[in-house]
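Suppose you are handed a protein chain with no further information: no name, no annotation, nothing but its sequence. What can you learn? This example shows the usual starting point.
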Amino acid sequence: MSKRQHLEQIEKQTGIRPDEMIGPEAPDELEEILSLYWTIRTGDVLTYQELDAYVRLSGTVLTSQDIQLLRDIDMQVGHELSAIHRSEHGSR
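A reasonable first move is to predict its three-dimensional structure. Written in structure tokens, the prediction is:
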């Protein structure tokens, strides 16, 4: 279960939207790739090994553009998480 699916389940059960889900609505195409990203990502950085394992196990075909987009999303997520960590723990 992806993090987003988990949060959606919490919202369905409680009737309250978790803060992590509040934001602008994304186009359907972006929602698809973001959902895929949160499904595949298991660690701090999305690796080619994770992508390879996902493709082999799911039978999903990812184009080189899909892979680059997933890596770009991961880089942005990493920057955001680093910024949050710095703000919570002071700049180091």
